[in-house]
Amino acid sequence: MQVSRQNLAVIFVVLMAALWLGASPSLGQTTQPAAKAPTTATPARQSTAPTAQRYVGPRTADGKPDLSGIWQAINTAEWDIQAHDAKPGPLVVMGAEGGIPAGLGVVEGGPLPYKPEALEQKKKNEANWLALDPEVKCFLPGLPRATYMPFPFQIVQNSKFVAFTYEYDFASRVVNIGMKSEAPVDSWMGWSKGSWDGDTLVVDVTGMVEDTWFDRAGDFHSGDMHLTERYTPTGPNSLLYEVTVDDPTVYTRPWKMSMPLYRRLEKNIQLLEYNCVPFVEELMLGHLRKVRTPEEIDKDNEPIDNPGGKLAPTTSTE
């Protein structure tokens, strides 16, 4: 039986309508409320984002990270460990050359938690910086200040010791790995006991004199200060330096500083001398110089065989 084109068109329309009605929700279905979500919580899907991998660098013979090298901080913590604006320096004649650069600070968690009386002392220190800062007098800088002064320092290590040598003023210290003894006497660079926390060198520092400062802004500590330093390799030429300061005499709670340290890569890099003692002799000892009067100077210049400086009488030969 032959099917006409007209019948084929009718069949096509009927089939399309049937398919559309089967795929579409009924009128009753569209008026029903949406199904409620299940009451049981579905476990959160764990993130598949890649995590930062721990840097694994060269090792020493005993398997510890090799921290050897010459390192230096690049920041303005020497001027002020807290955030600060740029401002003129203390000597007007130096103009812009003596200006203080701005800095974001290296202290974590906001302003330093000074006790009220200690904050007043900090302000006095800052106002009289040139007269009171131990660095001006070429005294040893102490810790942690020696780490971020604008001078490099060198690390040399073996399985029992990690030695730090600082270019500034021949400062140095030795970290004794595993040592338990306490400081026999307070000193400018303190008593350093070391241990390893994975790839991090942890240094416990006590026994420091109270005379050192943290910066040129007058931030200070007492003789009760206890430091916990952490040196962690973060790349072939970088370390993360972290230090927690615990000093209940001056601060209401422990606080922390952190900063990167960078390896000096110049050809033939080495520590040079910064012997500042001769630079401060006039400042420290100039007041002891004897001031001589003009008469005393003239007397010292008199000929030995002619006291009084008078001309001897001449005799005639005629």
Outline of this structure?
The protein has 318 residues and is of the alpha+beta class. Helix content is 18%, strand content 21%. A nine-stranded mixed beta barrel has the order 1-3-4-5-6-7-8-9-10.
What does this structure look like?
18% of the residues lie in helices and 21% in strands. The protein has 318 residues and is an alpha+beta fold. It has a domain at 69-77 and 104-278: Beta Barrel (Lipocalin). It has a 9-stranded mixed β-barrel with strand order 1-3-4-5-6-7-8-9-10. Strand 8 (226-235) and strand 9 form a beta hairpin. The longest helix is centred in the first third of the chain and has 19 residues, at 5-23. 21% of the residues are buried. Mean pLDDT is 85; it is low at 8-15 and 17-51.
Radius of gyration of CA atoms, rounded to a whole number: 38 Å
CATH homologous superfamily placement of the domain at 69-77 and 104-278: Calycin beta-barrel core domain
Please summarize the sheet with the most strands: 9 strands, mixed, barrel
Question: What order do the strands of the largest sheet run in, or round the barrel if closed?
Answer: 1-3-4-5-6-7-8-9-10
CATH 2nd-level architecture of the domain at 69-77 and 104-278 = Beta Barrel
List its salient traits.
10 strands, alpha+beta, Lipocalin, 318 residues, 9-stranded mixed barrel, 18% helix
Present the secondary structure layout.
Blueprint: H1 5-23, H2 27-31, E1 69-73, E2 107-108, H3 116-127, H4 129-132, H5 145-148, E3 153-157, E4 161-166, E5 172-177, E6 191-197, E7 200-206, E8 226-235, E9 238-246, E10 255-263, H6 281-285, H7 294-300
Parallel strand pairs: 5-6
Antiparallel strand pairs: 1-3, 1-10, 2-10, 3-4, 4-5, 6-7, 7-8, 8-9, 9-10
